[in-house]
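Researcher: We plan to redesign the surface later, but first we want a full-length starting point. Tokens attached.
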């Protein structure tokens, strides 16, 4: 049987398994293993299963083993641990507290502070869903209590939570870098300006929303003194220091992304104990949660590596590249088609699943057009970010819905999300049209 046909059938099988809610790791590993076995068994023309057992087991175990022992992969548990420790040490929430004080008199100031807080949380944790879950518990109930419009109080946090995909350190950037063999440090730096651009776009969305409908956000009636602003800004120094260590250390060439993660974990622990915000029980719970999340990500990554090796055996990627080349699609049409594929998949699948499922085909395709893989990584992550708030399965929206419960129907959250989706699409177009937005900082190294 032709390898490309086996590869196409495998993709269809994976999508079918995901449609019936089979976990992504099991779907990828099962189809990758079975597909590899079929290829080796039919290599001589006749079906000889006895000749396929040894090469199949060798390929499956060697690929998964090599991935798990990857040096770059070690930064995932470190950054996840950093997020949990920083939250329990009250480091991440202080950015929200500071932003709330400084933006108190701005229309929709608390909603804006929620977005800024999400950006600050993202700059330490690297996880969009964790950001939405944590900040949702803090911000949304408070805005609802203050009389904010229900759509604004929930949608602003759901959209702000997506910033964890772009603002470094991002777990998605780490996985993309490992599977495409691109510099993770460069990917981190490439995500800074697009992340800031997205954050500013969200703030502008809230400002316009409240200006057009003042009743959506009650006006601030309290008193904020200069001393209050100063104390709030000083209180946020641990989070700023950790972000500065990550970005400044990588940009300055003082240490790698993995070393930055390890240093920041140690720094967060020291700051937490020094300020008496972190206990041994908190530290233990942080490490326990880190192990659970890391195990899930590693299981998906190992299964994806098996599937990627299988796809390489099928030769389906060169077939697709040649087909696109023969069709003579323009770069603009190609990028539009890729964006459409990711946006559609984002309506139904989680970001990691989408990435490991599509990268084996997308990377050879974009390389054949001469696109920069660092820039393309930012485009992919931005598309995955949009998928987190796109109906019908916007994961961040469901996270916020679980936080607020029956107080806000999920359709009210989605109705507010449409405003943020519009600005997300505009930012995506800018990133795709002007690669310098993503490449300016990495190219300055």
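Model: Full-length starting sequence:
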């Amino acid at each position: 049987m032709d390898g490309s046909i086996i590869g196409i059938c495998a993709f269809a099988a994976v999508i079918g398994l995901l449609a019936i809610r089979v976990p992504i790791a099991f779907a990828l590993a099962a189809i990758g293993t079975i597909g590899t076995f079929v290829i080796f068994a039919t290599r001589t023309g006749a079906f000889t299963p006895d000749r396929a057992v040894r090469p199949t087991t060798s390929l499956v175990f060697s690929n998964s083993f090599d991935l798990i022992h990857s040096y770059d992969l070690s930064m995932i548990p470190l950054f996840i641990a950093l997020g949990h420790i920083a939250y329990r040490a009250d480091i991440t929430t202080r950015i929200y507290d500071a932003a709330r004080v400084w933006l108190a008199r701005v229309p929709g100031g608390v909603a804006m502070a929620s977005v800024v807080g999400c950006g600050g949380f993202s700059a330490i944790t690297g996880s969009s869903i964790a950001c939405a879950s944590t900040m949702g518990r803090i911000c949304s109930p408070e805005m609802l209590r203050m009389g904010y419009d229900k759509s604004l109080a929930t949608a602003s946090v759901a959209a702000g939570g997506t910033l964890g995909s772009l603002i470094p350190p991002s777990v998605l950037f780490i996985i993309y870098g490992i599977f495409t063999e691109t510099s993770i440090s460069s990917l981190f730096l490439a995500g800074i300006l697009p992340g800031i651009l997205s954050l500013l776009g969200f703030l502008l969305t809230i400002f316009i929303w409240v200006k057009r409908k003042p009743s959506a956000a009650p006006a601030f009636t309290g008193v904020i003194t200069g001393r209050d602003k100063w104390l709030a800004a000083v209180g946020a120094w641990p989070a700023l220091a950790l972000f500065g260590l990550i970005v400044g250390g990588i940009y300055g060439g003082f240490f790698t992304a993995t070393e930055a993660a390890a240093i920041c974990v140690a720094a967060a622990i020291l700051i937490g104990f020094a300020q008496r915000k972190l206990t041994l029980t908190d530290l233990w719970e942080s490490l326990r949660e880190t192990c659970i999340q890391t195990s899930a990500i590693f299981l998906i990554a190992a299964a994806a590596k098996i599937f990627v090796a299988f796809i390489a055996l099928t030769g389906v990627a060169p077939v697709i590249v040649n087909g696109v080349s023969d069709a003579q699609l323009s770069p603009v049409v190609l990028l539009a088609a890729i964006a459409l594929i990711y946006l559609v998949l984002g309506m139904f699948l989680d970001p990691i699943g989408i990435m490991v499922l599509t990268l084996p085909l997308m990377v050879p395709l974009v390389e054949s057009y001469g696109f920069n893989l660092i820039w393309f990584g930012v485009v992919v992550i931005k598309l995955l970010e949009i998928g987190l708030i796109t109906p019908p399965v916007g994961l961040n929206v469901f996270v916020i819905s679980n936080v607020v419960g029956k107080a806000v129907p999920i359709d009210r959250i989605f109705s507010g999300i449409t405003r943020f989706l519009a600005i997300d699409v505009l930012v995506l177009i800018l990133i795709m049209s002007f690669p310098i937005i993503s490449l300016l900082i990495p190219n300055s190294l």
